[in-house]
What does this fold into?
Amino acid sequence: MQTSTRQKVIGLLYFFGSSFILHLIWENLHAPLYGPYTNFINFFPRLLYATITGDMIFMAIIFATLGIVHNDFWWILDKKVYQKPSTWILAIFSGAMIAISFELWAVYVNYRWDYRPVCSALRLRISAIFCKVFCSWISNRRPREPLSFSRNFGVSMRAS
It folds into this structure.
């Protein structure tokens, strides 16, 4: 079955768009746990930049890895792929490994940030792991049917 360019673009937009939104929300929710955080307004540009550059690169690595494993760059368009355990195991495992590696590097090697005392006391240092695992899992979930504005909202886009 031939896949149209439109379907490919929609698949990529869904994967990376949902991943971007989820990562940005997550970054902003747990930012107060880190040392340099002052307030939302001052810190948002930094988190936006981190989401665009870091998190999206990590998601591209996960996307490419799944493409290699499934021997199909457009794996996201194949519904059978979602039934294979390798899709979920690999996404979760690679997301966790990327998150752990980067977190350790950023805190102990590059000193990009530090944990606030409450974070250390609660042992919340693994928050990045849960973010990558959750975002990898949710970004790989596709809607069962293409979204239809008129069907979902009862509005016709045709001129009357």
